[in-house]
Design a protein that fits this description.
mainly alpha, two-stranded antiparallel ribbon, three-stranded antiparallel sheet
Length: 545
């Protein structure tokens, strides 16, 4: 475009010059070697300009002829380079697509057309071709050659790092990542890899320093950098908790400022404050976190914040947690556990059943089994709850890379990733289907068998018999049963309800027509004496072993 403008300006200047000479005619006389030459000024200017143009044309022709061999060579070299770059592009696409044959063919063609010193991407194509062919030693040699070249150093180091990770050479991978982060601090993969390695070595100060440098260089996004720094501060606070609670408290509170939903940071901050006898501030941190995320670890620490509290005091604190986050399964289970410790078994059962209806989990049904053991001691009812626990989903746990931990850890023991642990249900096998296709807490509660008691022998020794008991006010007793109760004394009397009336009792949550029969079949002629037949046991939803 600039050349065209320059040419137009030159033609315009010549036209203006000739126009100016045409408006001012004149004669030009020249005496050369005794001869007089006369002509007009316009003709003289035209001859001069024509002569100048002829000289330029001759010079151009001579230069073209003189440089023609180089021009021809450069043309063929350029054509060869273009073909080489086309082969290089095709080879890289084939290597990315996993076509080993085409990639190898294009790599050989590229090396014949382009020099590797001229184009370092040839090393990358050959290394990728060796990788998809399974020639890992050749690929590693290519990456080492690239790492020694300043132009391809970062690319070679990344290839060596990935190969070291594939082979499980963690120390070599760490060295490659640190070398890459030193040479190119702007590389996110090198920064994150070095950060993970320093975290695995529990070098929290160095990891925090590296993370601050990456934040200043805008290598990581702000949210990601804040989260990782909060995790690192929490990890350092956990290490300092026993030796220096004050520093642990400061680190944990700084972590909460970066991420207010980090449960481990709140736990460490509260523990440090409790050790400093600052119960109120520690409890306020737990309450604030509980409102955001009702976590069982928070409830456990909050209820047992003070070691000298009685069971009733712990129950009051559990009820306070429930008031902060009502209609929550974790809060209800916490109140049920505290009530069980305080021996308020009716409250414990009510809260545990409510928690089971909201979120049927393994721990909820195990808690119900503990309540049953403390309340009635009936083995059949205890086994009933334990069977429900086996069919229930597993409780959430700190899970990372397929493994679970009883406590939160900053680094995964499997992959070494920082901030890998999440609070979620651990992986498990697919549970067997229940009768109606899914677990029904109301069905489990309604199918609970009655309390079984064992009568004591009166006069003659008799085999131990299980009597199904259900309290009721109205019952027709036989003369023989009433006489046995009077002989046994009032403290040994056993109330045996009529099975028809027990079956007519209202069921929980649904109508009596839908409620399953909690007994083992038709009642025998003599209640409490004869065991139900085996054929009758198979007709019920629950089997007592």
């Amino acid at each position: 475009m600039i050349r065209i403008l320059f040419f137009v300006l030159l033609v315009l200047c010549l036209a203006l010059g000739f126009a100016w000479l045409a408006d001012r005619p004149g004669e030009l006389s020249l005496i050369w070697q005794g001869q007089l030459i006369e002509m007009s000024l316009m003709r003289a200017a035209s001859i001069l300009i024509s002569l100048f143009a002829a000289v330029l044309i001759v010079v151009w022709l001579l230069r073209t002829i003189w440089l023609s061999p180089h021009t021809v060579t450069r043309y063929f070299r350029s054509r060869k380079r273009d073909r080489g770059y086309q082969a290089l592009s095709t080879g890289l696409i084939a290597a990315g697509a996993g076509d080993a044959n085409l990639a190898r063919k294009m790599a050989a063609r590229t090396r014949n057309l382009i020099s590797s010193d001229q184009e370092p991407l040839i090393h990358l194509l050959e290394a990728q071709t060796a990788l998809i062919e399974g020639k890992y030693d050749d690929a590693r040699k290519k990456f080492e050659a690239m790492a020694d070249d300043p132009e391809t150093r970062e690319l070679g180091l990344r290839g060596l790092y990935l190969e070291a990770k594939r082979l499980g050479a963690n120390e070599a991978a760490r060295q490659y990542a640190e070398r890459a982060s030193e040479k190119a601090p702007h590389l996110p993969w090198a920064t994150l890899a070095t950060l993970d390695h320093r975290s695995q070595a529990r070098q929290w100060d160095e990891a925090i320093r590296l993370l601050d440098q990456s934040r200043a260089a805008h290598v990581l996004e702000k949210n990601e950098a804040d989260r990782k720094k909060a995790v690192l501060l929490t990890a350092r606070a956990m290490e300092r908790l026993d030796a220096d609670p004050k520093s642990a408290r400061d680190d944990a509170q700084a972590a909460l400022k970066l991420d207010d939903r980090l449960v481990p940071a709140a736990l460490v901050a509260a523990k440090a404050l409790f050790r400093e006898e600052n119960l109120r501030k520690g409890a306020s941190i737990l309450e604030r976190m509980w409102k955001l995320d009702p976590h069982p670890d928070i409830a456990r620490l909050y209820v047992r914040a003070r070691g000298g509290d009685s069971a009733l005091d712990r129950l009051k604190r559990a009820k306070k947690l429930e008031s902060l986050r009502s209609n929550n399964a974790v809060a209800l289970a916490t109140v049920a556990e505290a009530a069980l410790d305080a021996r308020e078994l009716a409250l414990a059962r009510t809260k545990a059943e409510a928690a089971a209806r909201l979120e049927p989990r393994e721990s909820i049904f195990l808690l119900l089994a503990d309540i049953e053991e403390a309340d009635t001691g009936d083995e059949g009812r205890i086994r009933h709850w334990m069977a429900q626990a086996l069919k229930s989903p597993r409780d959430p746990a700190w899970t990372a890379d397929g493994v679970t931990s009883p406590v939160w850890l900053p680094v995964s023991p499997v992959s070494g990733r920082l901030d890998a642990f999440e609070w979620k249900a651990p992986p498990s096998q697919i549970a067997a289907a229940t009768e109606d296709g899914h677990l029904n807490p109301d069905q489990a509660i309604r199918s609970l068998p009655p309390v079984a008691t064992v009568p004591r022998p009166v006069e003659e020794p008799a085999p131990e018999r299980t009597v199904e008991a259900a309290p009721t006010a109205e019952r027709d007793q036989t003369d023989r049963e009433r006489a046995e109760r009077e002989r046994a004394g009032p403290e040994k009397a056993i109330s045996v309800p009529d099975r028809k009336e027990a079956a007519a009792l209202p069921a929980k949550g649904k109508d009596a027509e839908e409620a399953p029969d909690p007994f083992f079949g038709r009642p025998p002629d003599d209640p409490g004496v004869r065991e139900p037949a085996a054929a009758e046991r198979t007709t019920t939803n629950f089997r007592l072993f």
